[in-house]
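In response to reviewer comment 3 from the previous cycle, which asked for concrete evidence that the modeling workflow produces usable outputs, we include below a single protein chain processed end to end. The sequence was submitted unchanged, and the resulting structure tokens are shown without manual editing.
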Amino acid sequence: MPLDHYISQVHLKKFYSPSLHNQMFALSKKSLKSFTPTAESVCRISDGSTNSYLREGREIEEFLKTIEPKYTAAVEKLASNRIDEECIYTIAGFVAYVSSCSPGAMRIHSSALQGRVEKEAAALDSRGMLPPPPAQLAGLNLTEILKKGIVKVDVDPKFPQAIGIASILQNTAMFGNFRWEVLHNSIEDSPYFTSDYPVAIEVIGPKSPRNRVVPLSPNLAIRIQPNAPISEQADFTFSNFDYQNKKLRLREVQQINRLIVRCAEELVFFRDNHPWVSGFVRKNRHFRIEYHEGGQHIAETLSSTYNP
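The workflow returned the following structure tokens.
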């Protein structure tokens, strides 16, 4: 049974510390326990890439063969302002993979599917389109049964993962046709973190699309800004792609790292173990991404109800 990495080793190796031998620093959001793992030893699950809902159960591995070998070169191209189609495809594909196949993504999208099923069940119930419940439930209808927690909609996390894998190329094209800010960080004592879910959300306003902020190395990150309609056709010429370089000040770097910690599932990784790091993680660890339904849409938001 293979041990599959849901965060690519080539990404994590960018955060290896010069003070360690092929290792990086890590902190658990739950326990605040620190350790120094290798890229190989973390962010992996037995048969994590295998999905029985798909005809080809390990087809995502074929996609990753087009991404992981080119990741290092793609990051170097971004850093040196030599962006080409291969670079965009590689980075957008990395973001699409994490957003679909990591445990964080599977949890988030399972919650969204659960909410949709419960909403649809309530709508059918209100129109009298469901059979009456058993007599043992004292005449309660399905909506009441769900509200009381007598029954629960249980979504297999592998199902939303299968949906993500089936649409991985479409999602790669989508991310690659948005506007990017290439965020350069030259502040030596405040490098970027990464995590076991390094696709942080950034909410600018209540009606604004949510940005994605993705650390790529301790000195480089991108902000993906949805600025164009999502096309049903996957455009791998990236004709709508636009970008600008931005050198961040300390306060802006701190905000990026705050988002990375808050959006991490369980683990935060970093290159340099500065004295301020543990307190920074401690302060921001009681958050993670949740799906919340409002009006006609379901949106990713940061929730402070997460209390490990």
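Confidence is low (pLDDT under 50) at residues 295-299. We consider this sufficient to address the reviewer's concern, and the full set will be provided in the supplementary archive.
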